[in-house]
Amino acid sequence: MPSAEIGSETTMGEILSAYPAARLGLFRRYHIGGCTSCGYQLIDTLEQVRRQYNINDPVETIATVIRESSAAEAKLQILPATWIANPKQGRFLDARTPEEFQKGRIPGAELLTVERIFEILDSWPKDTPIILYSNHGRRSLERASYLTAYGFTNAKNLAGGLEAWSGEWEVSCPRTP
Questions:
Q1: Each residue of 125-137: pLDDT tens digit?
Q2: What is the pLDDT of residues 24-56, one digit of tens each?
Q3: How far apart are CA 6 and CA 165, in angstroms?
């Protein structure tokens, strides 16, 4: 577990280098860093981000969120073997591009489009089991965190993505970065 000092003058680049899961933790707690309109620069200090996005928590509280972000990220993960051994009723969503989806996908998966995200936010029950995946699990982890930040209690990321999946694919699909 990283133990880097976090203060008001620590840059976001330094924070993300020491605590890679901080991006997800900050988005989940403060809804910052998830898109260009709520993004920050790596050279921004924590105090600059705090002021820019009107975060009322003191720097030490934000630092605690950052330090605890790895544990929060771990709660979003599900191992492929766990899912294969005990598949739950729910939705399997592919967080890759339409082109990647067309080349191959896990059987039963649906493409996560912008329209589907709005449908999920507007009409799916908040406790719907949702498993998201991408090639390596980073994009899908961001989507699982996003859904969790909006109240979904059972959104999970397939840890390691397709690279870790040992099940069958629909269509021949080369594993790409």
A1: 999 999 999 998 8
A2: 889 888 988 866 667 899 999 999 999 999 999
A3: 36
Task: Give the CA radius of gyration of the chain.
Answer: 17
What does the domain layout of the chain look like in residue ranges?
12-73, 76-164
Q: What percent of the chain shows pLDDT beyond 70?
A: 87
Backbone region of residue 113 per phi and psi (left: phi > 0; alpha: psi in -120 to 50; beta: other values)? beta
SS (H, E, C) the chain: CCCCCCCCCCEHHHHHHHCCCHHHHHHHHHCCCCCHHHCCCCCCEHHHHHHHCCCCCCHHHHHHHHHCHHHHHHHCEECHHHHHHCCCCCEEEECCCHHHHHHCECCCCEECCHHHHHHHHHHCCCCCCEEEECCCCHHHHHHHHHHHHCCCCCEEEECCHHHHCCCCCECCCCCCC
Q: State whether CATH 3.40.50.150 applies to domain 76-164.
A: no
CA 156 – CA 143 distance, rounded (Å): 9
**What is the band of 168 on the pLDDT scale with cuts at 50, 70, 90?**
low
